[in-house]
Amino acid sequence: MHRIAVLAIPPVISFDVGIPEIVFPAVRVDGRPAYEVVMCTADPGAVPGYTGRSYLIDAGLEAVAAADTVIVTGAGSRDDCDPRVLLALRAAAAAGTRIASICTGAFALAQAGLLDHRPATTYWLYSQEMRERFPTVDLQPDVLFVDDGQVLTSAGLAAGLDLCVHIVRRDHGAAVANTVARLAVVAPIRPGGQAQFIETPLPPETGAALAATRAWALARLDEPIGLRELAAHAHTSTRTLTRRFRAETGSSPLQWLLHQRVDRARELLEVTDLPIDEVARRSGLGTAESLRLHLTRRHGLPPSAYRKAFSRR
Q1: What are phi and psi of 44, to 5 degrees?
Q2: What pTM was estimated for this model as a whole?
Q3: What gap in Å lies between CA 108 and CA 235, rounded to an integer?
Q4: Phi/psi class of residue 138: alpha, beta or left (left: φ > 0; alpha: ψ in -120 to 50)?
Q5: For the chain, domain boundaries
Q6: Fewer CB within a 10 Å sphere, N or C end of the chain?
Q7: CA torsion angle 59 102 71 133 (round to 10)
Q8: Contact 283/265 with Cβ under 8 angstroms?
Q9: Does the pLDDT at position 195 exceed 60?
């Protein structure tokens, strides 16, 4: 199994350290667990929590050296990190281990020098602090998470869920990731570039919300749906639709549609033998060339290579 070490830097935030234990143990590939998750810290034993509660963590930093992926969490990351932690992170990075952070865990990565001249994010509330303390980091404060290959960073709290589901998607494809997201009752698709927070208040849960329109569109991705059709279903103008769509999702209607269609195409490539042209048609991308363009742009693989890598038939 793929070994994940969740490195907790005290004081521990229970939600952050709990996210990997929610997502990764739920992953099954061919009926077998895909990940082994180990909690670790510099000084094993009773680890203080952010709210005063203690957490028992048995494993030490040897778990970092043995891991395939390291996920750094903990409010203490903003402080001067334990030199042993920084050394372990640098050694893991040098060995090619994938390293990720949730929330303020990015501060530990920055102190270890792993974010120098890399794009990264952290909880928006601490973005200015990150920018001032680590000017060599290419900070992207308004996104949910950043995937820069070997190093991944996420914003605060629920964005950690998005990052973990993204890691599953990257490792095992969209179909497996969507299954895990459903089990965790989280949105299967929240692109990393989506805004961390939206200042416009969400509309009340009445007929004015666009959730029904999004569900209607998801059931018709293979049809020629555009702004006019979405606006007609929502009984509003295209301008109002666009404004409200951004307020509710952080993206434009057409960006959202494209992302859903690419993800539908990925699932079809993974779980069916349909020809590429038919996958493009059923996902609403139109042609094989369009599918190839968007899939390669978003995920770095053309359809045939993606199917070969992630087929679950």
Answers
A1: -60, 150
A2: 0.68
A3: 49
A4: beta
A5: 2-184, 200-313
A6: C
A7: -90
A8: yes
A9: no
Strand partners, 126: none
Tell me the pLDDT tens digit for each residue of 239-297. 999 998 888 877 899 999 998 999 899 888 888 889 999 999 999 999 999 999 999 88
Q: For residues 251 and 275, what is the distance between their CA atoms, to the nearest angstrom?
A: 31
Q: What is the DSSP letter of 41?
A: -
Q: Which amino acid is at 144?
A: L
H helix or E strand, kind and range, residue 111: helix 105-111
**CATH of the domain spanning 200-313:** 1.10.10.60
- CB burial readout 109-143, b (16+ within 10 A) else e: bbbbebbeebebbbbbebbeebeeebeebebbbeb
Q: Are strands 35-40 and 2-8 parallel, antiparallel or unpaired?
A: parallel
Confidence of residue 198 (pLDDT cuts 50, 70, 90): very low
State the CATH class of domain 2-184. Answer: alpha beta
Q: How far apart are CA 190 and CA 201, in angstroms?
A: 19
pLDDT value for 5: 97
Tokens found for residue 51 = 């709210």
Residue pair 57/11 in contact by the 8 Å Cβ criterion:
no
Q: With the C-alpha atoms ordered 159, 163, 168, 173, is the resulting torsion angle positive or negative?
A: positive
